[in-house]
Lipid II isoglutaminyl synthase (glutamine-hydrolyzing) subunit GatD
Amino acid sequence: MCHLYGNLLNTYGDVGNLMAFEYELKKLGIQTERKIVSIGNDFKESDYDFVFFGGGQDYEQSIVKNDLIKKKDEIVKYIENNGLFLAICGGYQLLGKYYNDAYGNKIDGLSIFDHYTVNQDSKNRFTGQIKIQVESFDEICLGFENHGGRTFLSDKQNAFGKVLEGNGNNGEDNSEGFIYKNTIGTYLHGPILARNENLCKKIIEKIFKENNYDVRIKTKN
Ligand code: GLN
């Protein structure tokens, strides 16, 4: 497992997503290893089965963006090869075109996806509990959001969830995050995989199925 910029972008215990993953796999007798891949480190797509990119402050995002671009080609390959990639909040924003931060700076994203993120008037932030319906995994998921950014998807992108309570991408169109192949971008801290155990199990099951491992994991109703 790769924790992208885990020493810079790791707000609200986002590392708990990796821990939740490790915990579920351990119960199946599968050992995992995780590595922080940060500024100056090579990212080789074939080295990983799970890439996690967490959220963070505007300042850290502005530092990360300069290094991130050097990893773009391998990240694109990883995503296109159906690799499991989870990006939360600041990480999610950086996969898109740009993020206009709270100080009026434009932080360029990787432009792998078409979404873009603008800020809010009067430095407002979307904070609080959030509840979303995730159709692709047939789950209602809970989380916590805290973002200044308002993200808009392009017509070609599919939202990860539909907002039932809270703000999600932008507080306007009820969309939350995006999903493409096995890449998920979302604003849900929580950490989402720890707080939504069924989602974590269903993601693992999907990846196993695609790789021809025959494992069934019991989910709770
Ligand atoms: N700094 C970004 C914002 O405020 C991302 C926040 C986060 O990752 N929690 O929108």
About this structure: The first strand starts at residue 2 and ends at 4.
